Amino acid sequence: MKIGIIGTGYVGLPTGVGLAELGNEVVCVDKAKDKIDDLKAGKLTIYEEGLDKLFQKNFNAGRLSFTTSMRKAVSGADVVLIAVGTPPHPITHEADMKYIYAAATELAEYLTDYTVIATKSTVPVGTGDNIEQLIRTKNPTARFDVISLPEFLREGFAIYDFFNPDRIVVGSNSEKATEVIKELYAPFIDKTQMLFVSRRSSETIKYASNAFLAMKIHYINEIANFCEKSGADVAEVAKGMGLDKRIGNRFLNAGLGFGGSCFPKDTMAMAYMGRLVGTPIELIETTIAGNQKRKQDMAERVLQSVKQIPNAKIAVWGLAFKDGTDDCRQSPAMDVIGVLLQNKADIIAYDPKAMGTACRILGDKIAYADDMYSAVKDADVLVILTEWKEFSTADLQGMSQLMRHKKIMDFRNMLDADEAVKLGFEYQCIGRKIS
Prior knowledge:
The chain is α/β, with parallel strands linked by helices.
């Protein structure tokens, strides 16, 4: 098949690479000329575990190409995937649909043969109806169907998730469009469940799923707070909870709270939709408020730890919102750093992959280290904000000789607490019992 993909971000690019690997001809279009120029030169514009190898393979094979021309991406395509951003509106926090509707309006004039238009972006309920109306108004003779094809790719694991999906959800009100999508995803039919639902149900599934996972994260953080006061260990509690198959063990790691490009905006959008239709979803509203407070509270813990140290130097490990990605959008780490900077903190930071991304956001407001040990040299406290695996193998003995004050605030529970204490560190973590 020929597949057109509108948008080359953390959804569009991994999806395009994956579909090309399945043997399709994929043309990705984006308005950002600099980004397209880099991609056309074979240079990746994002970091995603495992993406580089497949990108180069399919780019070199000619199955994957890039353009700023909507005509080239859409004309003759069997399927067009809309994968542009839906950022939160600055005032209402609803999903801002201007990029979605602009893409739909522009692509309409280039539809030739029958085409399936699929929304990959996370969009409010009823978006498919609006896209259909926009296209019919712009091009009354076009032959097309609009479906919802929500993405469930975890950043940091997007390539793995593409080829090993938990499920493929298709929101279609057209049997013809359904058959096209069955053909597109034929390689997965025997290995995963394909769920065919109405378009509006599909649009709701994505929001409901993300909101539920966000609530799960917030819940275990509240349990961690309880454990810190009661003497229980949140790691043990989470393990016991996770053994219940009704609960499961994923998203039960206590820490800073949720972040990234999905959970914050999707919970706000879901809450807005609930209020819009007259059914406020109080669990989601509480989760949003609690998650924001969580990051403020963690920053306050750091400030408290250096309150008695003049001109304290704070070392930070981790800037991305999670490991496996360079994405700093809505990163809890960046939010904590923001609060510290408001209090005029002196910060030096290190992240294995997100240094460039963070620097574009923070500029010279903080210092940047070449590696994690350079970051802690002469530091008064180390704060761990992202769960990169390499942090868990840190040489604590060597660090004890590098730091001015031996303080560690491990907000991702990465280190061996007993070893840290044995080496004389003043060690704080999240919800865990330290012997």
